[in-house]
């Protein structure tokens, strides 16, 4: 199995890859293979990051974290398809999140 570079894929190819990865994740979850499920989920998030318009992720702005209700992330800088910054109210050090899991604050609560 050869994996194509996500950056080289068209939008349609990325969407198909994401659908394939999510289907593999669903099957792994049904079979109870937790680590395989997690790998496919992360790969799908990374592929989805290439569908994000990076001009919409603004350093200094706060974003909601998809899949983590009530958690917010302040972006300090972008590097590749990752946003580097800090979670609100956390004493944790700087971390990087794929841009695909960041949602604008104004898009619901």
Account of the protein in words:
With 109 residues, this protein is of the alpha+beta class. It has two domains: 6-49, Hypothetical protein YfhH domain (Helix Hairpins); 54-104, Roll (SH3 type barrels). 33% of the residues lie in helices and 23% in strands. It contains two helices and five strands; from the N terminus they run ααβββββ. It has a five-stranded antiparallel β-sheet with strand order 4-3-2-1-5. A hairpin with a 6-residue loop joins β1 (62-65) and β2 (72-79). α1 (11-30) runs antiparallel to α2. The protein is globular and about 40 Å long. The protein starts with 10 loop residues before the first helix and ends in a 5-residue tail after the last strand.
Count of folded domains: 2
CATH architecture of the largest domain: Roll
**How much helix, percentage-wise, in residues?**
25-40%
What class would the helix/strand composition place it in?
alpha+beta
The CATH topology of the largest domain: SH3 type barrels
Amount of beta strand: 15-25%
List the helices and strands and how they pair.
Elements: H1 11-30, H2 34-49, E1 62-65, E2 72-79, E3 82-87, E4 95-98, E5 102-104
Helix pairs in contact: 1-2
Sum up the structure in keywords.
109 residues; alpha+beta; SH3 type barrels; five-stranded antiparallel beta sheet; Helix Hairpins; 2 domains; globular
In short:
This protein has 109 residues and is an alpha+beta fold. It has helices spanning 11-30, 34-49; strands at 62-65, 72-79, 82-87, 95-98, 102-104.
